[in-house]
Amino acid sequence: MVPKTNLKEFQREFTQRTGDSIKKLVMAKIVETPAYVIKELGLEFPPGQEILWGLLILGQQDIHFFVHATESSLATMFRNATNGRPPQEQYLYIPREHICQLEPVQLEPGLLSPLRLLPFLRRKPRLLKLQFHQQEKNFTLILEPVTGLEGVTALLPYYLSDTNLASSETDKAGAGSSVQDEG
Description:
The chain is of the alpha+beta class. Helix content is about 30%, strand content about 30%. The protein has six helices and seven strands; from the N terminus they run αβαββαββαββαα. The longest helix is centred in the first third of the chain and has 15 residues, at about 5-20.
């Protein structure tokens, strides 16, 4: 557990660096996102992994994803033995006005998964789908907050401005899909 002084210090430093203040801070991992997308966003998976752990920061103004430069003692030994590069701090800034979609999702289970064969075993969505545009491209990230979506879902509508929400609904209507509440 992080002592409160460290959390307060992080909040102060974050506000100084970004000009944004923290509404909600949760540990999360980026999952089900191809490496080329991560790279285009200026992020990098740890060697041999396909998930990226970090802090999902729902700011007063925008959304941020921050990866602290840490590694385990064992990873440090292996890196030193191979003259590898130490981990670097990583940061993704997503302006509120660039967010197109932000909603809880449930990924479809694999073809032979017990969850597909026995649908009553499915749990409520625990992933967050974040679609946004940046550098004239559209991106989709799938995030899994460690503590679940309970503390996050109430804040989601705040990040969808009227114009983004309207364009998202227009896209869905144009594709012939309907919006359903899973609650």
